[in-house]
Design brief:
- The protein is α/β, with parallel strands linked by helices and 247 residues long.
- It has a single domain, classed as Rossmann fold (3-Layer(aba) Sandwich).
- It is 29% helix and 27% strand.
- Strands 9-8-7-10-6-1-4-5-11 form a nine-stranded mixed beta sheet, with helices on both faces. It has a two-stranded antiparallel sheet with strand order 2-3.
- The longest helix is centred in the first third of the chain and has 17 residues.
- It is globular and about 65 Å long.
Amino acid sequence: MKILVTVKRVTDYEAKIKIKPDGSGIVTDGINMIVNPFDEIAVEEALRIKEKAGGEVVIVTIGPKDATQQVRAALAMGADRGILIEADDLDPDAVAHVLMKVVENESPDLVLIGKQAIDDDSSQVGQLLAEYMGWGQACFASKVEMADGKATITREVDGGLDVVEVDLPAVITADLRLNEPRYASLPGIMKAKKKPLEETSPDALGVDVTAKVVVKGFEAPPERAAGMIVPDVATLVQKLKDEAKAL
């Protein structure tokens, strides 16, 4: 089985984010960049499937040249080879079209994607890719079981669990409780340096990445007002009604 897994280069969730003075983006100087945590979960699931059924795990990322670090991190976990499509600031639709071309070239049996990226929280790429490919999709997976050319996926929903079955090839997006990603071992890190990593671009793939969504600017959220202590319940109710407009 060949499994294609996407990884995205994102800012460390523990970093303090600052907006550029002109509002054109965030300040990345000195900020640690990591693999999107949901994508890391997708990589782990692909490796577990490979360990049971055999096959190949291919990592693909779309980003700047420096995103090779994130591809190598996934290779160090145990993936077999990587693909870097060098491009910056693509919207989800453009990303889906680029991935569609990669899928056509690679012909994987399964595509695993993190349910969302922690930088923009769009949660759109997996759904768009499945639609453009005409494949079945199962989003927000908390459990995946493979058998007889099908995937059975358990999803957490309000009030319980939802179980769906899709024929392969398919697109599955990984949720938080799907698994616990492994740490890369020292031998794995050393081996990752020698594993194949192909570099290409949207132009080389023949994909038009003209944005459909244009970001006009960034601004920090308003600072949270300090709390207050009220003398009694009546005052609390009055403030909730008249000031907070919560009642």
